[in-house]
Amino acid sequence: MWSGRLKLTVLSEDRLQMKWKETEGNINGYKVRVKPMAGDSEQEVMLKTKTPKATVAGLSPTKEYTLQVYVLNGSQEALFAKRKFVIEELKNASQTRNNRRSSGTMLADGPICHPDKALYFTFVSYLKTQAFFPPFCSFQYQTLSPSGSQFQCDTSAMTDIILLVDGSWSIGRNNFKLIKEFLSTLISPFNIGQDKIRVGLSQYSSDPRTEWDLNTYTTRDEVLEAMRNLRLQAGKLFSQEHTILLCSSPGLALTHVLEQNLKPESGARLEAEKLVILLTDGKSQDDANLVAQTLKNLGIEIFAIGVKNADEAELKQVASEPLELTVYNVLDFPLLSSLVGRLTQVLCTRIKGKRNSENTGEVKPTLCGPTDLKISAVTSKSMHLTWNPPLRPPKKYRIVYYPSRGGIHKEVILDGAISSLQLANLTSHTEYLVSVFAIYDTVVGDGLRGVTSTCRSILPHSSSSDSLCAAISIFGRCSELGWTRPQGTLSNLLICFEQGIGPETFRGPFSPVSFCRGGCCKARTPLGPPRYLSFSEISHASVRVSWEAASQTVKAHRVTYVSSRGSNTGEVEVPGTASSAVLRPLSSFTQYFISVRSTYDEGDSSPITGNVTTLKVPPPRALKVTELSGNNLQLQWEAVAASDVVVYQIRWSTLSGEKSQELSVAGNVATTVLPSLQKNTDYKISMWAYYKDGARSDTVSVQHRTNSRSPPTNLFINSETPTSLQIHWKPPDGRIQHYKITYSPVSDNSVMASGKSSSVTLQSLLPDRAYKVTVSAVHNTGESESMSTTGRTGIDMMEAFGLVEKEYASIKGVAMEPFIFSGSRTYTLFKDTQLTQRTSDVHLFAIPPEHTISILLRLLPETSKEPFAVWQITDEDFQPLLGVILDSSKKSLTYFNHDYKADLQEVSFDQQEVKKIFYGSFHKVHVAVSHFKIKLYLDCKKIAEKPINTIGSISTAGFIMLGKVTRTRGPRSGSASFQLQSLRIVCNSLGAEEDRCCDLPALRDEETCPTLAPACTCTSGLPGLPGPPGPPVSLSSHVFLEMSILYTLALFYAVRTP
């Protein structure tokens, strides 16, 4: 409706679309102002575009408004058009015009085959009977040329594109604007039209929603305008403890595409290629793989676009092959624009498919379709179609029919070998448009269209006599005579015609006419309908319909059904020998009206009808609760027999009435974990199911009281020795009977520890072995879950070199001192003692990159002033690889190894505290080496820390030596004299921090250090008998005893010596 320069279109009760003729010259845009005459506040829309179109919502249908359109040019604005309107008046005027058009003449064109454009069919004349045309087909070829500076996809191939947009709250309104800009730019290059490319859009979060169908908009400008007006849907919020879950369910959304967006009534065309473009920003809350595979199996191509938090693995599972063309992922929403260039090119190429080759300009012509469409045997409810097949037989035929004045489009798919079809269940006295398309493997042939009207149904009153008579007026070209069947058996009917209506016009649901004489024809009675309709196997989604055939001559049975709300309809055809059919899928707890007709060679019988109500959807069953560690519960259930559960909803709360929590679980899952529950608390756990048809099952519940069977936590190992490991843990809440400790690998040994303890020492272990240790707490209610960790015993070099009480005597140049402290002996290594072992004989494993060398030693007055290696590893040529060197002349300690580049590196320490080592007292030295630094500890006190490169691989093919002077090499090289009490290698860099120096008298803490083993054991408190007299004491013995006492004192005051 143009008024001056404005055209107004009513979109709904409160929405109005306005268009105007575009102005000439350069402008900045338009400003649209809608002003009510009285009452409502003023609405104003600012447009920064040259598109001469706008939509305003929220208007009152009965109020008068003034519409003003201004042209913007810089800071100036000028009134371009003005008009007053009332939405209700505009709506009535539009309806009047439509009624006029409907009563006028309808014209169209003849069929034309075009390689890349939609098929156009027109009719030379409009007939009340039927329309069919002689075969006419011409092929038009065109060469596709490259696009210009702005890419345009030069194809009009029939394609249905569904945009599936994530509308959850996690996106946010600002980012949603970027999504709309991205989608607008993406679809702009394509030729959108009713018979070309169609675009529909659905938005999803927790529930999918169709924003517009494929047949809602017929131009590119209309689609872009709808995109600009799109609003963020946002999803339901589920509270799970203190976390807000923003549910994004692409699986449910793809199901919505399959069941709603791609239906014929939503604008989907069977002959059109179909693309789904899915855009999401997060990990899905349901399983989209199954429905995605279903879509792909149907030949529907899926493109998956992820933004920000999207799971790329899920995108690849959903998308079609090849993934390099169908999967896209960007780090944030502003980067979506970077995808447009490539994605539009890919979409364009996929739409063109195999029709064109853009490089060579080769075009394959579209195949012609059927010809000579004939419509016959028209009644008030049915008509019969026949046609001539094309020269090349098609794979399938697609027949589409619908009332010309508007109504539901219905379609039938036939095998390519069939060239006729009976259309039934039509509306009487209604004009129908019929189209027949030939479908090949990759293309759709020309269509053939016809138009005709069903007969008017006339039902005269019945008569008690044996003859029925009615004066019938003929409407249009046919009428139908009906009557109520009289009682008794009828074998034949005699039908007479008057006023020049001959028997050649007679047709009806009878067998062929027996004879005709004058104006009368004799025919047999109507065909028998099925009998004894019944229903069984009723569920929430299906029902079995049973009947008994009236005759053995029945060729087929057609079962139709429609829900009481009219939203679910369908038809099933079974052979004439069948006596039942299963109808599915149906909506739950819904009444359905069922009719069954029998098909004979002569036609269809009248139907037998009935109604049935489906059951409510079943709830999940057999809920089972199992306690897990960490205050968690595992909930299990038996899945319902149906496979159409979309999601399970679970809610739990304490019986004391605290705030409940909820969790959504995919419909193909039968177990989940309820996290972070309180111990010793009564809970009510409820559960229900949502189905594909939107139905919700009844709620099932179970009560459970949680128990306190928590495991110990913070499990760790320290104080590693060659034969022991100390295990520590944090006790759990509750009363503990005892702890169970299991360790391996030698064997699965177990020990028990008191319920009040928090540590235990594992004894009698093998040196240099990795042990897996597990600890569990035994409560009054049972044993908790076990916690585990791994530790390694240290390497005891004293034992490896035979420096133990039972073996030292066999080693030349070694003496054992008589005093004992902390259960350990002290051994003196004299000058030039040869203590060498093969590395492979000592180490079960190679020296790890992180390790600690622990040495308790004393330098003697006669110790060499030359540098010597207390302990070192060499290669087979006795070249040093790793070790610790003491230099009496410099009063320094040096650690050396070969780094990961095989270069020798040395780190020296000469601090004042280091000089204590050289003053003749016992000292404990720790050299702790990690990947990037080395630390020196003296008497369990950190002295210094320095950087170091990561150690390289140390060969086990060489030797380990003690006390070797650094200037000499070889198996018989010189060695220094010193005393050694312990020498261990610990396979971590924390050995020094865990050592409490309990083997140094001056640093021993009796409260924290292990109890010293007694030197002897007495059987009673009474003194025993005196022993035999000993030999006379010589002067040398006195001297030795005095030296031993002084030595013990020196050991006790070791760390106090300046």
Automatic annotation (TrEMBL):
What span is annotated as the signal peptide, if there is one? none
- Organism annotation: Apteryx owenii (Little spotted kiwi)
**Protein keywords:** Collagen, Extracellular matrix, Glycoprotein, Hydroxylation, Repeat, Secreted, Signal
Return the Gene3D superfamilies for the record. Answer: 2.60.120.200, Immunoglobulins (2.60.40.10), von Willebrand factor, type A domain (3.40.50.410)
Annotated function:
Probable collagen protein.
Q: Where would you find this protein in the cell?
A: Secreted, Extracellular space, Extracellular matrix
One Gene Ontology cellular component term attached to this UniProt record is:
collagen trimer
Residue span, Fibronectin type-III domain: 2-93, 369-458, 529-620, 621-710, 711-796
Q: Which domain of life is it from?
A: Eukaryota
Family stated for the protein in its record: Belongs to the fibril-associated collagens with interrupted helices (FACIT) family.
Residue span, VWFA domain = 160-343
What's this protein's name? Collagen alpha-1(XX) chain
Report the InterPro entries cross-referenced here.
ConA-like_dom_sf, ECM_Assembly_Org, FN3_dom, FN3_sf, Ig-like_fold, TSPN-like_N, VWF_A, vWFA_dom_sf
